[in-house]
Specification:
The complex is a heterodimer of chains A (291) and B (324).
Chain A: H1 2-36, H2 43-59, H3 65-86, H4 96-118, E1 134-137, E2 140-143, H5 144-166, H6 168-178, H7 180-185, H8 190-211, H9 222-225, H10 227-237, H11 243-262, H12 269-281
Antiparallel strand pairs in A: 1-2
Helix pairs in contact in A: 1-5, 1-6, 1-8, 1-10, 1-11, 2-3, 2-4, 2-8, 3-8, 5-6, 10-11
Chain B: H1 19-30, H2 35-57, H3 66-82, H4 88-110, H5 115-135, H6 137-140, H7 165-186, H8 189-199, H9 201-206, H10 211-237, H11 247-260, H12 267-283, H13 287-304, H14 308-323
Helix pairs in contact in B: 2-7, 2-10, 2-11, 2-12, 3-4, 3-5, 3-10, 4-10, 7-10, 8-10, 11-12, 11-14
Classes of the chains: A mainly alpha (291), B mainly alpha (324).
Chain lengths: 291, 324
């Protein structure tokens, strides 16, 4: 019983840490899809880029861990502004097929670029000493890094929710998600709003990829391998919402960890099957509005 | 689109449409050392044709078309390697039926949804298939792949030889059959309703077309063709690996189709031909740059040349006519 209880706590803890990372990475995807109606399959490439920025900043340039995290966010956000202005914005009015193909093309390029620059092997994350070891809470030991990860993600999520629900920028974003034409006609510069939101979402993906580099290994095939998970979070959570993907990410994080812990022989099988049935039951996602 | 397509066009087979077949037969005699590559190209043309039917004509965007291809390959492979069924025609039939069954079962579900949900469902279904093939090692061989496939001579007379001559002709014959069926369908009223649904499904509803049933029919036929292509791959390679399933082969197939030209019958012929020949020459020497190149090509085609190679050819011909 005690053994079962401790494994239960451990699965819940690791599952929540994993879910948080999934959310930080995917929330940008939910917003870009909800706001611009853009199917950005290459979102995982931004997360991968964040991971590479972190590992190279630490191992090659000797930056401290928090600085490297901040750099991952800023670098990916800045790069995404260029991509959005030059490439993505040309396809806002194009069909779904064009967007899907274009972003698959970007994935191929990102995978190849990562292979050439960083090699095929996965990049280890050099953690600072204060994040190694265990923290003991209520007589149980938890890995310090996961605790840090949950704390940072929670802070990010709180800041994001405050930003979207309590600030003028957030009100504009919500208005544009609800009705883009109307928002435009009352004088909101949706073009600039798109760029800013896209940069924020991609930056968060970069940060999530960097933070989660220890859980979701950084390697060139990252954007292909984890695409399904990011999309599941958004599709199950509901487009354009903040809370839906959060619930979905935690659900997936915990159930995926549980499946891999207790039923490793089935791999991710149950997650996909559960997703299929969930989407059949509620095609717009758990918290999405019916379209 | 100003070109008369589908039902509105003349359904008779034009002279130029025989050229690919003449070229294929000529290739058999002139390039004997490239026959294995040729068989592979023919297989992928059939696979691309099946995707073209639902993606190009019916407008269903799928990221999981490899599920049918992979299922066909594994059904044929398992029947031959584990259950001792070695008749090639029987294997193809079994694979097409299995893929068709999966097509009708999954199509009945995913065709009720739209947009992201539909994309996600196709991806999840392909992922489930990959997961099963990966984990059921006792049946599928898992990550090591399925080997030990032996195939009996076709009709008891034509043995699969070492030089790939039989395999090439077998693929060519089946592709011809698949092309014939697909072409008939596209030039039929049925094909016309598919194009109508792609352009405006609400209006097709309004004029009384049973949209869902038409899409489901197309989806199932496409799944069967893809399963057939998969079984052909298993028969000619006598090996099935995990790389026939999942998101990557679906994406790669999409690249081939887009390169040739989506929504046109012969785009499915040109795309795999160019792609696989280029892959054969370039991918071994520059594997990373190869991936970068196809990504770049996809981006460029989407941004600047939406009709693919055949679209560009059309434009060149149109411009040339203006000056003549």
């Amino acid at each position: 019983m005690e053994v079962f209880l401790s494994s239960l706590v451990s699965v819940a803890f690791h599952g929540i840490a994993y879910g948080m990372i999934l959310y930080v990475i995917s929330v940008g995807l939910s917003v870009t899809m909800g706001l611009m109606g853009f199917v950005n399959l290459a979102h995982g490439a931004f997360a991968m880029a964040g991971g590479y920025v972190l590992t190279s900043a630490i191992s090659r340039f000797g930056l401290s861990f928090p600085l490297a995290l901040a750099l991952a966010f800023i670098a990916v956000a800045a790069a995404s502004v260029l991509l959005e202005r030059w490439l993505y914005s040309r396809l806002y009015d194009a069909g779904e097929l064009e967007q899907v193909l274009f972003t698959i093309g970007l994935i191929f390029m990102a995978v190849a670029a990562a292979q050439v620059t960083f090699g095929m092997l996965q990049r280890p994350v050099l953690l600072p000493d204060y994040l190694k070891g265990q923290i003991s809470v209520l007589g149980r030991d938890f890995p310090a890094y996961r605790v840090f990860l949950i704390a940072v993600s929670s802070a990010m999520i709180a800041a994001l929710w405050f930003g979207v629900e309590r600030t003028l920028w957030g009100a504009m974003v919500r208005a544009a998600v609800d009705n883009r034409a109307m928002a435009q006609s009352i004088g909101i510069n949706t073009r600039r709003l798109f760029t800013l939101t896209f940069a924020l979402g991609s930056g968060l993906a970069g940060l999530g990829g960097a933070l989660g580099a220890e859980i979701i290994a950084i390697q060139p095939t990252y954007p292909f391998e984890h695409l399904a998970y990011f999309l599941i979070v958004v599709a199950v959570g509901g487009l354009g919402s903040l809370r839906g993907p959060f619930a979905a990410a935690l659900l997936i994080g915990v159930s995926d960890t549980a499946c891999k812990y207790w039923l490793p022989q089935f791999g991710a099988f149950f997650i996909y099957v559960a997703t299929i049935f969930l989407l059949l039951w509620r095609p717009a996602g758990l918290f999405g509005r019916r379209v | 689109m100003t070109r008369a397509v589908g039902y509105a066009a003349d359904p008779r087979i034009r002279f130029a449409e025989w050229l690919p077949w003449l070229a294929a037969v000529a290739g058999f005699f002139l390039l004997p050392e490239y026959l294995p590559l040729g068989a592979r190209i023919l297989t992928y043309v059939l696979f691309a044709l099946s995707l073209d039917l639902i993606l190009g004509y019916a407008g269903i965007i799928t990221l999981g078309h490899s599920a049918f291809f992979g299922l066909g390959a594994y059904v044929a492979g398992i029947l031959a390697a584990k259950l001792g069924v070695t008749d090639p025609l029987l294997l193809l039939l079994a694979a097409a039926c299995a893929a068709g069954a999966l097509g009708i079962a999954t199509g009945a579900v995913i065709l009720r949804t739209h947009g992201l949900t539909q994309l996600m469902l196709t991806l999840a279904i392909a992922a489930v298939c990959l997961e099963i093939a990966h984990k059921a090692t006792s049946i599928t061989g898992g990550a090591d792949g399925l080997s030990g496939i032996t195939i009996a001579p076709i009709f008891g007379a034509f043995k699969f030889d070492l030089y790939g001559r039989t395999a090439y002709l077998w693929c060519l014959a089946l592709l011809f059959a698949g092309w014939w069926v697909t072409r008939k369908m596209i030039y039929s009223p049925f094909g016309a309703t598919l194009c109508g649904i792609r352009e405006n499904s609400v209006r097709m509803h309004a004029i009384g077309v049973p949209v869902y049933r038409r899409l489901l029919t197309a989806y199932t036929i496409s799944a069967m063709l893809a399963g057939l292509a998969g079984a052909l791959l298993a028969e000619t390679n006598q090996f099935v690996g995990l790389n026939v399933l999942g998101f990557e082969p679906s994406g790669e197939l999409m690249v081939m189709l887009i390169l040739g030209g989506v929504g046109r019958l012969y785009g499915a012929f040109v795309g795999p031909l160019v792609y696989l020949i280029a892959q054969d020459f370039l991918a071994k020497q520059f594997p990373e740059y190869w991936y970068f190149g196809i990504g770049l090509m996809l981006v460029v085609v989407v941004l600047f040349a939406r009709g693919g190679i055949l679209g560009i050819a059309d434009r060149i011909v149109a411009r040339a006519r203006k000056y003549v």
